């Protein structure tokens, strides 16, 4: 029920009946229940300020809480490992696709040369400015930081006197200087310099001192063309990232605290305490009174229970045991519900996060796996388009300028040489025989292609065809040699046959 406003209160002072009639009519004319300000929605009054301003006040705190759960929560670790092994996997492979209209066999040789150089470039000592991570390891870290922090920055760096001058410097969003002040004619939002179209122009980083300490008083400005900023934009005004775990953080925290409380309770229930009940001393009251005939008293301090022990008590003392009452709480259903809610908020299945497959059959497990792979493929596509593709194009140009690649007419027709595809890590299905039969039927009925089927397994269909052809040729060759040897009789059998034929003739 809505409250009386100031006009209704004024009318109510004269005629309460008309004031409450106005209120009833106003309640009946509401369109949406969600827009009601009645009793059920009384505490639901979110701010109507711009989205980015509201996020700005809580972004750092949310990121810190997500990082804390990353380090201390089993459920958060399960979420991150699910993304690590399914998105990055064994690495996303490059395939150069220079057009085959190149004269001679140059296209195939160029593709092979580019892929060989790329594999060498992806090593830690060549691609990472710190020489500590390969491209595969950098990709895993990018995915982890994207989920936990909400985003990550990759800076393009060129170094002199190196076989591979183009390198990557991975920087955390914590390094953006949110205290930098905009200059004349510039607009800076939390370390991101923007133009009139809300487009990033440059990024302001805290200056690093003593190796690890970041000094917000000094700023390093890097142009946006040299920075890859990977984050998910969900509103037109959004400039900075928000942790992808933001909706799951309260549930993960609840699960951690509940498990800890249950663990303490179970430990208490497993304990047994012993108290010594002493008798009331006999005799008069006063100094020097003894509790019995023997002046020797046993001291119980420091005494504990041990298996098979035989003890002795003072005269008149007795032992009373204290066993906490209670029973083990049923935590499985509650934890399962929490994990399902956490996984659903992230777009994953319960089985992908918990690794619990006890309640699934083939159909339900396959359906959950299909839905999970849709999310993994979206992330893989984002990594390819936003990170790997620009890095590869920069690498290709640096190798051409370095003279390690001979690409005739590259400056005039770059598109001819930049064509390429990325093969994500492969995956297997629950029942390989059923999937193989389905693929066979799809190929025979022209509903699918060998290229797509091989890509699902993380393989290049050309490599598969070449390898199968080599195997078939070898098998045929070996079978042909064996059948040829069997058809030819040995010398002894041939000599015996000649003698038999001569005898028959005689």
Structure characteristics:
extended; four-stranded antiparallel β-sheet; 506 residues; single chain; three-stranded antiparallel β-sheet; alpha+beta
Q: Overall pLDDT, averaged?
A: 82
Could you give the order of strands across the largest sheet?
Answer: 4-5-6-7
* Category by helix and strand content: alpha+beta
Low-confidence stretches: none
Largest sheet: 4 strands, antiparallel
Strand content: 5-15%
Number of helices: 16
Provide the succession of SSEs: HHHHEHHHEEEEEEEHEEHHHHEHHHH
Radius of gyration: 38 Å
**What's the helical proportion of residues?**
40-55%
End-to-end separation in angstroms reads: 128 Å
- Mass-distribution shape: extended
| Record field, number of beta strands | 11
Topology:
Blueprint lengths: L5 H9 L1 H13 L22 H22 L1 H15 L4 E4 L9 H16 L2 H4 L7 H14 L2 E8 L7 E6 L15 E3 L2 E3 L5 E10 L3 E11 L3 E5 L17 H21 L3 E5 L40 E5 L8 H16 L3 H5 L7 H41 L12 H4 L1 E4 L8 H13 L5 H7 L4 H27 L3 H15 L1
Antiparallel strand pairs: 1-11, 2-3, 2-8, 4-5, 5-6, 6-7, 9-10
Helix pairs in contact: 1-2, 3-4, 4-7, 4-11, 8-9
Characterization of the model:
The protein is α+β, with helices and mostly antiparallel strands. Among the domains are: 6-35, no CATH class; 55-245, no CATH class; 428-486, no CATH class. It is built from 16 helices and 11 strands. It has a 4-stranded antiparallel sheet, with no helix packed on it. The chain has a 3-stranded antiparallel sheet with strand order 3-2-8. The protein is extended and about 105 Å long. The model has no long low-confidence stretch (mean pLDDT 82).
């Amino acid at each position: 029920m809505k409250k009386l406003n100031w006009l209704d209160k004024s009318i109510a002072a004269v005629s309460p009946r008309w004031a409450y009639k106005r209120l009833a009519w106003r309640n009946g004319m509401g369109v949406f229940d969600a827009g009601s300000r009645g009793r059920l929605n009384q505490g639901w009054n979110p701010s109507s300020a711009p989205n980015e301003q509201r996020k700005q006040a809580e972004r750092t705190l949310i990121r810190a809480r997500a990082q804390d759960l990353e380090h201390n929560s089993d459920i958060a670790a399960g979420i991150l490992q699910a993304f690590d092994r399914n998105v990055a996997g064994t690495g996303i492979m490059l395939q150069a696709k220079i057009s085959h209209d190149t004269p001679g066999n140059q296209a195939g040789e160029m593709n092979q040369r580019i892929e060989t150089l790329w594999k060498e470039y992806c090593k830690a000592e060549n691609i990472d400015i710190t020489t500590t991570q390969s491209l595969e390891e950098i990709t895993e870290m990018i995915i982890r930081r994207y989920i936990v922090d909400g985003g990550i920055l990759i800076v393009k760096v060129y170094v002199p006197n190196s076989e591979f001058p183009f390198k990557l410097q991975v920087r955390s969003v914590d390094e953006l200087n949110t205290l930098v002040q905009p200059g004349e004619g510039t607009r800076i939002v939390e370390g991101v310099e923007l133009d009139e179209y809300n487009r990033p122009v440059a990024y302001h980083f805290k200056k690093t001192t003593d190796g690890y300490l970041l000094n917000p008083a000094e700023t390093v400005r890097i142009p946006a063309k040299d920075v890859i900023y990977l984050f998910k934009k969900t509103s037109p005004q959004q400039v900075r990232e928000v942790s992808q775990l933001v909706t799951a953080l309260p549930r993960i925290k609840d699960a951690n605290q509940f498990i800890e409380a249950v663990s303490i309770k179970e430990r208490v229930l497993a304990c047994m305490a012993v108290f010594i009940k002493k008798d009331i001393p006999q005799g008069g009251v006063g100094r020097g009174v003894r509790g019995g005939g023997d002046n020797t008293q046993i001291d119980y301090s420091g005494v504990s229970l041990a298996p098979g022990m035989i003890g002795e008590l003072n005269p008149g003392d007795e032992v009373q045991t204290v066993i906490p009452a209670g029973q083990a709480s049923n935590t499985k259903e509650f934890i399962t519900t929490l994990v399902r809610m956490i996984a659903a908020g992230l777009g994953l299945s319960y089985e992908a996060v918990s690794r619990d497959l006890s309640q699934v059959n083939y159909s339900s497990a396959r359906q959950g796996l299909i839905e999970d792979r849709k999310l993994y493929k979206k992330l893989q596509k984002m990594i390819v388009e936003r990170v790997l593709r620009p890095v590869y194009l920069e690498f290709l140009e640096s190798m051409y300028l370095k003279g390690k690649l001979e690409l005739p007419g590259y400056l005039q027709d770059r598109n001819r040489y930049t064509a390429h595809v990325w093969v994500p890590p492969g995956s297997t299905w629950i029942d390989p025989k059923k999937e193989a039969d389905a693929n066979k039927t799809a190929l025979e009925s022209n509903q699918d292609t060998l290229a797509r089927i091989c890509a699902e397994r993380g393989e290049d269909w050309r490599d598969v065809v070449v390898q199968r052809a080599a195997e078939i040729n070898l098998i045929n060759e070996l079978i042909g040699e064996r059948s040829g040897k069997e058809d030819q009789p040995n010398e002894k059998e041939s000599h015996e046959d000649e003698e038999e034929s001569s005898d028959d003739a005689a």
